[in-house]
Write a structure and sequence with these properties.
It contains five helices and eleven strands, in the order H-E-E-H-E-H-H-E-E-E-E-E-E-H-E-E.
Length: 188
């Protein structure tokens, strides 16, 4: 009987640790692997970043220049269920052992917030008529457009730092704030 009590105690402790780790992963921070070259030179393929989930948990809007993780399925309202399922299905451990990679989550930089008017002329980005100082981009953008984009309420506009090799808001449009699931706080 004493050995069963001891085993039960260890199992209980293990289950509590799993629940605490899951809660931290869902609501506080989690590691995330960079896939692809869209954020070069800032982040490279295979880099591991620590993502703060605090902004998502408490609905804090990202600021200009923040590097954020987005759920690129913008037609789908990101939910707690998505967070829970995806944290088990797509994480640093499962990606290493089971080759599970989530290509729906993108890491990008915020360049526009609700109400901003964005323009792309001569390979440069302008916000509200002023050139955005972007010393972090890889190279001059091979993109221009005659269309002015007004970022809708409750959305952000995101671009990769490697503008010539990035799927971003130029392709999917402005991103709803509920699809911004975290902010990069540091990389390993």
């Amino acid at each position: 009987m004493k050995i069963l009590k001891e085993i039960g105690s260890w199992v209980g402790t293990f289950l509590i640790a799993i629940v605490i780790a899951l809660l931290i992963n869902l609501f506080v921070f989690r590691p995330s692997e960079v896939l692809g070259s869209s954020m070069e030179p800032t982040l490279k393929n295979g880099d591991i970043g620590m993502i703060s989930r605090i902004s998502h948990t408490f609905n804090i809007d990202p600021d200009y220049g923040d590097i954020v993780i987005i759920d690129s399925r913008i037609e789908h309202k990101h939910s707690l269920k998505d967070d829970l399922v995806d944290s088990f299905k797509y994480n640093v451990i499962s990606s290493r052992f089971f080759n599970q990679r989530n290509h729906n989550y993108w890491i990008k930089r915020v360049i526009g917030k609700e109400g901003d008017t964005l323009e792309f002329k001569d390979g440069k980005a302008y916000r509200n008529g002023k050139l955005i100082k972007e010393d972090y981009i890889k190279e001059k953008m091979n993109y221009s457009s005659d269309t002015k984009i007004v970022v809708p309420k409750g959305h952000v506009y995101v671009l990769g730092d490697n503008r010539n090799s990035s799927m971003d808001s130029r392709v999917i449009g402005p991103v709803p704030l509920e699809n911004v699931i975290g902010k990069l706080i540091f990389k390993f």
